[in-house]
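Practice problem: predict the structure.
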Amino acid sequence: MSWLPKNKIVVPVDFSDQSLAAVDAALSLVEKPTSLYVIHVLPVLTDYEAGMLFNTVDDQARIQHTEQALRDRLSAAKYAGFHPQVAFGDPGYEIATCAEQIGADLIVLPSHGRTGLTRLLIGSVAERVVRLAHCPVLVIKAPAVKK
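Answer:
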């Protein structure tokens, strides 16, 4: 993989410190922030959830709120011009699909480092993205916590 500046990089963000650090890592690999496509994947709501829990919030409103949250968190001048993306569904699949649709050169994402039962129950988004992606994937491992 060439380390020359990339034209399009997809960075999934779940608003954790690790995912926001991945945005900064990706920023160092592009010439300008307009090359960054920052995606957040929302869960699909069942009819019950949509009707009972969020009766005034439809999918379009969820997209608008999420895009605004991304813009608020990445409001510093160094991020000016990034492309917020919002998808619904399985995060690993949606991240890989977004990257393919925009013709991304690279996906940069953090690994939260879950192990054991937690990983089995939740699954590994990073692992799924690596398996499904059409382009190279840079997984940034979270630093080990010293006890």
